[in-house]
C-alpha cells in the first residue's frame, strides 16, 4: 500500500516561484502522468518526490508520513538520458543497488548473498529482455536496451514509487512503443506507484490511470516571478476507452490555457 499526498506545495528558486499551491492525493498503485509545457516545472515536481529538492512551502507525505528528506530506496528513478554506469557490466549495473543497500562501505556482497542477488538480477534482466546481455557493457547496447537496463536497475530495490522523467524521449517510435508495453506490464505485475513526466499527451494517456497537467495560469507583467505553475487539469483515465476520450478533452484544455 503506497499513498502519496502533496499538501499545498510550492517551490521557489531564489525568489522565482516555479510551482504554486500543488495539492494532490494519489491512491495506491496509481500510474500518474504529468504533462505541461516546457519550463512548467514537471521535473521540479519529480525532484520534490525524489527528495532531490525540498518544498519551499507545504509538505509531501508518503503513506501519511513526511517524505524522507534524502533520496532513498523506496523511490526509484529513470531519466531520459541513460543513467547506467558505463564501466560496469549489465549484470553489475543491476546488482549494484542491492550491494549498496547491504554493504554500503565496500559495495560488495559475498558468498550466498551475492549469488541470491545475482539470481534476482538475472530474473529481472530476463524480464526486461536483456537476459542474454548480462556480461555486456552499456556501450554495447542500443538506446532502448540501455533504458531497459535503467528500469531493471531501478526495480532491483523494489521501490514503492517509480519516477520516470521523460524516459522514452530519446528513443525511436518503434522502440518507444515496445517500452510502453514493458512499463505498463511491469506496473501491472508490481504493487508500485508510477509517476511519469512526459511532453507527450498520447504517451501520458496510453499509459497512465490519471493525468495531471501543470501550467502557469496567472502572470503579472509587473512581477513575472510572482506566480508558479498549478494543476490546471486532473483527469482519471483508468480504462483504455476512457483514456482515449479524455485525451481529446485534455488537448482542448491545454490549448485553452496555452
Ligand atoms: N536548480 C534550479 N535553480 C534555479 N531554477 C531552476 C532550477 N531547476 C529548475 N529551475 C527553473 O524552474 C523552471 C521549471 O524547470 P523544470 O525543469 O522543472 O521544468 P520542466 O517542465 O521539466 O521543463 P522541460 O519540459 O523543458 O524539461 C525553469 O524555469 C527552470 O529554469
Automatic annotation (TrEMBL):
Instruction: Show the InterPro entries listed in the entry.
Output: AAA+_ATPase, ABC_SmlMolc_Importer, ABC_transporter-like_ATP-bd, ABC_transporter-like_CS, P-loop_NTPase
Concerning Pfam families, the annotation shows: ABC_tran (PF00005)
Q: What residue ranges carry the coiled-coil annotation?
A: none
Under SUPFAM superfamilies, the record lists: P-loop containing nucleoside triphosphate hydrolases (SSF52540)
Q: Transport: present as a keyword of the record?
A: yes
Domain named ABC transporter: residues:
4-241
Which GO molecular function annotation, any one, does this entry have? ATP binding
Native organism: Arboricoccus pini
Q: What is the protein name given in its UniProt record? A: NitT/TauT family transport system ATP-binding protein
Recite the UniProt keywords alphabetically. Answer: ATP-binding, Nucleotide-binding, Transport
